[in-house]
Write a structure and sequence with these properties.
5 helices; single chain; alpha/beta; globular; 4-stranded mixed beta sheet; 29% helix; 8 strands; 2,3-Dihydroxybiphenyl 1,2-Dioxygenase, domain 1
Length: 208
């Protein structure tokens, strides 16, 4: 028996679709309680809608809800921040946030139709420890930048040493260590500490 070769499949997006009894109520819950943005509605009155986080979109269609055995999983930039937002909005928490053995920090909520939605972010401290020896390096930083670094390390639940090491390791690989959520937080920290110079400013720093 000949077996057909598996074709190359190009797929740019995957959209979960949930059947709901009331499109308007579902839109209200997902946008106001869960923090999604309304992407579109179709029909008058609507029988189909799309809500999204950033580039990830989920469809809501009018129909009979069937939540049994259904879980929709979202990888986000900062699950802790979203968790507190959901708790503040009295969203039903089905499973509290925690670090999981599969390398994700996540939690589960239940929506108004009984569907379970899980939100989590990667745990980069998962895996075996790497034995190292640290050495003292004489470092002097611009005062406002040093204050930002301390706040950033607290935000990421890291030491300043580990935060600097993370950035250096990523820089050496030509990639950035920060999610879009963290980058937005960094912009807030820049405003907090009055950092008004660009990323090339260190070439012009003149210590007083």
């Amino acid at each position: 028996m000949n077996t057909a070769a598996t074709p190359f499949v190009e797929c740019e997006q995957v959209h979960a679709g949930l059947a709901v009894t009331d499109i308007a109520a579902a839109i209200d819950f997902y946008t106001k309680k869960l923090g999604f943005k309304l992407a579109f509605t179709w029909g008058d009155p609507p029988t189909f809608a799309g809500v999204n986080f950033d580039k990830v979109q989920m469809f809501l269609r009018k129909g009979t809800p069937d939540p049994k055995g259904c879980v929709v999983y979202f990888l986000v930039g900062d699950a802790d921040q979203l968790y507190e937002f959901h708790r503040a909005n009295d969203v039903t928490i089905a499973e509290p946030i925690d670090d999981r053995p599969y390398g994700i920090r996540d939690y589960v909520v239940r929506d108004l139709h009984g569907y379970y939605l899980s939100f989590g972010h990667h745990l980069f401290n998962a895996g075996p420890s790497i034995k190292i020896e640290r050495v003292d390096v004489p470092v002097r930083l611009e005062k406002r930048l040093a204050a930002l670094l301390e706040d950033l390390a607290k935000h990421k639940r890291m030491s300043v040493n580990s935060c600097l090491e993370e950035m250096l390791l990523h820089t050496n690989d030509g990639v950035g260590p920060h999610t879009q959520t963290t980058l937005r937080h960094i912009q807030e920290l820049k405003k907090k500490h009055g950092i008004d110079y660009d990323s090339h400013a260190s070439y012009r720093f003149a210590e007083e």
